Amino acid sequence: MPSPASLKIKIQIMCGSEIAMGPGKADLLDAIRETGSISAAGRALGMSYRRTWLLVDAMNRCWRERLVVAVPGGGRDKGAHVTTAGEAVLAAYRAIQAAAAGAAQPGAEQSLLPLLRDEPLSPDP
What number of helices (H) and strands (E) belong to the chain? Predict the structure, then answer.
């Protein structure tokens, strides 16, 4: 059953043509912080191992400092952690998300709903 129409605000911070930060990457940083592991964070979010590592790589390439550091092996500091820079980027991104959500006036989407179809038309052949 289709969900009712709603307003969705999606914030993406671009680095050239690459998405440096977006909602999925922010959620991944949260999950890495919680699990201490890139692969465990991906599993928790239902992402493939490869997709998870590609997202971490993209974040680390886009920002001046790495957002995630992984330490392989079996030592005490093994696993992954969100760096100080990663924490700062994540906090700033979450603040932008909150500001954008707050900027949308309650009920603003009501003027759009009468103009919106219940389902999209099929694409032209």
Answer: 4, 4
The domain total for the chain is 1
Report if residue 51 sits inside a domain: yes
The domain containing residue 63 runs over which residues?
A: 13-101
CB 38 within 8 A of CB 20: no
Find the distance separating the first CA and the last CA of the chain, reported in whole Å: 25
CATH number at residue 64: 1.10.10.10
Q: Helix, strand or coil for residue 63?
A: coil
**Sign of the alpha-carbon dihedral angle for 82, 87, 93, 95:** positive
Q: How confident is the model at residue 22 (pLDDT cuts 50, 70, 90)?
A: very high
Over the stretch 28-77, which tens digit does the pLDDT of each residue have? Answer: 999 999 999 999 999 999 999 999 999 999 999 999 999 999 987 766 66
* CA separation, residue 28 to residues 2, 7, 55, 88 (Å): 27, 23, 8, 15
Both tokens of 4, joined, read 């009712």
